[in-house]
Amino acid sequence: MANKIFDKETLLDLTVNFVPLFIILFFVGVFAVLNPWGGLGDFLSIVAQGLLIIPFIALAILTYISGKAIAGDEKTKTVFPPGQATVPGTPPLTHDEDDGETAELEGDSTAEHADEPAAVESGEPAVVESDETAEEDGETAQIEATESTDGDGDRSA
Amino acid sequence: MAAVNGELALTVLMGLLLVGVAAWLARVENWRSYTPLGSGGVYGGETGQAHHEKPSGLTRWLTTVDHKDIGIMYGLYGVIAFLIGGAMVMVMRAELLDPGATLISNTFYNSLLTSHGITMLFLFGTPIIAAFSNYFIPLLIGADDMAFPRINAIAFWLLPPGALLIWAGFFPIPNLIPAQTAWTMYTPLSAGVGGGNQANAGVDLMLLGLHLTGVSATMGSINFIATIITERAEEVTWANLDIFSWTILTQSGLILFAFPLLGSALLMLVLDRNFGTTFFVNDAGGAILWQHLFWFFGHPEVYILVLPPMGIVSLLIPRFSGRRLFGFKFVVYSTLAIGVLSFGVWAHHMFATGIDPRLRASFMAVSMAIAIPSAVKTFNWMTTMWNGKLRLTTPMLFCIGFVQNFIIGGITGVFLASIPVDLVLHDTYYVVGHFHFIVMGAIAFAGFAAMYYWFPLVSGRMYQRTLGKAHFWLWIVGSNITFFAMVLLGYGGMPRRYATYLPQFATLHQIASLGAFLMVIGGLIWLYNFVVSYFEGPVVTDGDPWNLKEYNLYTGEWEWFDRKLKTTITDGGDEEVATDGGLHGPVGAETADATDSDDSGRAMDANDE
Ligand code: HEM
Ligand SMILES: [Cu+2]
């Protein structure tokens, strides 16, 4: 079971925590081998090693637990984009997207967009930041905002 | 006989009183039940209209247990504290314009210094984060409210008395002076021993006020842990919990372990000061004991303050880059890693105290290790923006500013974590520059990014974009001028926490004050913008003001907002729309008082491209 959760993808995600773990372990080794202050036996050297080993263990445990919780849910439940699970009609992430979460996958997710409502095409106007606090010349906020939206360079893309 | 009658009458009276209290409590209970629920939930049909059930006026705000109301109160509280803390530091920056003590006395400078730090960290930083987490986490995770709504209210209401106690020394109360201990409250100074004036009761009040804010933060953190773990909607799993909730969960864990320790240490200090205990007496190593206890809390505290802003930035940058967060799970795991490791680095604040070199070396090693997860995040933010469809809206600009400032703040931190470097730079302005790049340049920037981003949701109106951008540019320029000057001052050997200095530091100090002045202008522009826009800004009629749907990045809180708009606005085709159950009147015929034309805003946008 554990092996199924901690497959290659999950371990890859966890590399971010393996790096600090490795750094700490490295210093444990350095202090043990080089022994720069002489005598590993006395109390303060043990404390010094403990100051490395305790965070190491704590981080290892937390990495394991969180990896298990996240990867476990990933494998047993529908995975939506983060924060969007409660939005009705949000398409779940496909396995690929879910694994990589990388830019290319999001870039060409056209297939996924195709079965979405037409909101994308119609460029549904939205109220964006407006220049005016008060509406001028009887224009409604909505109209003004639409103009500002058009001004946004990103729309030209 | 008469006595018996008297007793009987008393009993009856008491009974009546109890019945009255019970009836009153039941009413309070009712108000709670009718609180509009975050996700519609059980009372689905009534959402939106439910505002009518809340008492009106002041009673509503005093009795509310609605997470959104409490979020707003936290926000207001944080903003007020920010203005006060800002005013304090401006007096200090004015004093530092010339080398001598010209404007204020040295002791008053020290009082302001202490209060500025404590105000910004405990009365602005933590509450402004709580504002966003209270308002938005239940909406983001699809919970009806916080797990313990009343504990939530209590936690907030501990804060105003806390602030009054912390500031008490400044009030015109006889024989009470402000604390001058700096925010670190090092003993023996803070123990009130010796010939100084810090045995004054003002210091005790400050310690007790700090204790209250700590209790408040702890209660809040328990609430968030319970809420995020147990109150999530069914479809919100650990695999798709949003990043802001992750950072708040981690932050709450840190608070749970750090703040009770601060509370205990503070009480020990109060006992030392008033009841003759000897926890922190100098000869038994008590001064160093205080530093250990304080920094075991203090270093996690800096991450308590920075993790949620990191979450905000991780949430916002993708929305304005047109794509999902690059390496989302990296960000989650590194957040958790920071959380754990932040408890293993505290003595990097104590390298210069003469603690054993072996211990120093270990703390240096873990401090290096904790820099990795922080650095990973900056790369995630940058790769998310890389080749993205950037929309340089005001919240996005503040997020980018966060990244810029966090990089400088983080890198200066890594240098400080190196023992030989720290022995040179400790207690200089370099340290002040380091942490201001983070607390102002990053944490406050993210806070303002979030305020701009969610302003339409909370107020139902839009702010003025040109003013928002002016605010941003004044801040990014001002903060870099000020804090970079501080870094240079530190290299030059200018010690921190002094009202006076040697003449050779004058120019850099004046430059630092100039930057601070730019930030004040930016802050005033922000204040004007938000106040005016709150009352007169264009009404938001669309539940997607940031056009997130187009990029498939529409999150739960906007969905909630959209539903609220649809259930509240009766006639979508008319401009005469009322929003939010009477909080604002309908949009009447306002006069145009904005001077910036629409075009200039657009031109600015075009330039940004
Ligand atoms: C990248 C990781 C970081 C490292 C390695 C680091 C390292 C350090 C070190 C070694 C000091 C002590 C300097 C001295 O007093 O001589 C210090 C001070 C400080 N740091 Fe950082 N830091 C980091 C990130 C942060 C963050 C994220 C924050 C804030 C949220 C922060 C806030 C502070 C504060 C407030 C102080 C000054 C405390 C005081 O003496 O009043 N640091 N940092
Ligand atoms: Cu630290």
TrEMBL record, chain A:
Q: Report the domain of life of the source organism.
A: Archaea
Regions of compositional bias (Acidic residues) in chain numbering: 96-109, 129-139
List residues traversing the bilayer: 12-34, 46-65
What the entry lists under Pfam families is as follows: DUF6684
Chain segments carrying region Disordered: 76-157
Which key words tag this protein in UniProt? Membrane, Transmembrane, Transmembrane helix
- The name on file for this protein is DUF6684 family protein
Q: Which organism is it from?
A: Halobium salinum
